[in-house]
Amino acid sequence: MQEKRIDGLPFMKMHGLGNDFVVVDERQGPSALTEDIVVAIADRHRGIGFDQLAVLQSTNEADVHLVFYNADGSTSGACGNATRCIARHLIDETGKTDLILTTERGTLYARDAGNGLTSVNMGHPQLLWNEVPLASEMDTLSLPIEGAPTATGMGNPHCTFFVDDVDSIDLAAQGALIEHHPLYPERTNVQFAHVIGPDHLRMRVWERGVGVTLASGSSSCATTVAAARRGITGRKVTIELDGGTIQIDWRDDGVWMTGPTAHVADGIWRL
Predict the structure, then answer these.
(1) DSSP letters of 77-113?
(2) How far is it, in rounded angstroms, from Cα 158 to Cα 216?
(3) In DSSP terms, which residues pair with 64 in a beta bridge?
(4) Three-state SS at 59
(5) pTM value?
(6) What domains lie within the chain, and their CATH numbers?
(7) What pLDDT shows up at residue 77?
(8) Confidence band for 4, pLDDT divided at 50, 70 and 90
């Protein structure tokens, strides 16, 4: 029998609060995806464009295993909004209301939160210097960086600054500088946040390997953890991002995030 010719890479385009993703489904077998193709797809002018690319893989340990890539082709251990988008896709596909997903971060749990919202438990935050990781032993609550930011690990490293007005910050310049700070050997995601009201924050995000993004799930989790540790908020927080609003709840079983998702389109990337 003649082998069927594969002349393209099927993909789905999704976003959570404008934090956008290309999703490749490899549950039926490996795709033609390579690091070079990831970078080509990421180009917003000559490709499709995304903040992260996620790959779905089969596993006997969960409903699906997820692998994440940044726009520069590097990998990421976690991507909260992509996880929520994929969880919603699987909920719609299977009819399940509760899911188990595995990632480099570990095992994550997702559920249908009703009213079109999806919740994902991003696991317990990593609060020790070597878990984040940082380059040497120090207090993660207040780093020796101007502005005394807080370091948090959520399966990927984060650096959170609390300021008077996030919209006055040159996010592109400051984000790029802090991403490569020598205290972060694996680079870092960067957040700037200010208080709107009780348990209500405004936040903007610079993601490592990507740049300025409209939203970030893991960054929202890290900012909530940092704010609660510093006594700025409680452990259940509403965060206003450039792309919309997300709810974060740091519970005894991990950090839950809840928000909307969108499945924008399906397509074929021509190899």
Answers:
(1) S--HHHHHHHHHHHHHHH--SEEEEEETTEEEEEEEE
(2) 11
(3) 101
(4) coil
(5) 0.91
(6) 8-122+259-270 (3.10.310.10), 150-252 (3.10.310.10)
(7) 82
(8) very low
The predicted pLDDT at position 6 comes to 53
**Cα dihedral sign, 252-130-72-107:** negative
Residue 262 to residues 85, 108, 175, 246: CA-CA distances in angstroms?
7, 20, 27, 14
**Nearest of 78, 74, 19 to residue 50 by alpha carbon:** 19
State pLDDT tens for residues 138-170: 999 999 999 999 999 999 999 999 999 999 999
CA distance linking residue 154 with residue 139, whole number of Å: 17
- Look up residue 171 and give its two tokens: 């996010």
Tens-digit pLDDT profile for residues 109-132: 999 999 999 999 999 999 999 999
How far is the C-alpha of 31 from the C-alpha of 44, rounded, in Å? 22
Neighbour count for residue 30 (Cβ, 10 Å): 8
Tell which residue, 80, 28, 73, 83, has the closest CA to residue 47: 73
Q: Is the pLDDT of residue 3 over 70?
A: no
CB 147 within 8 A of CB 118: no
The CA distance from 120 to 113, in Å, is 9
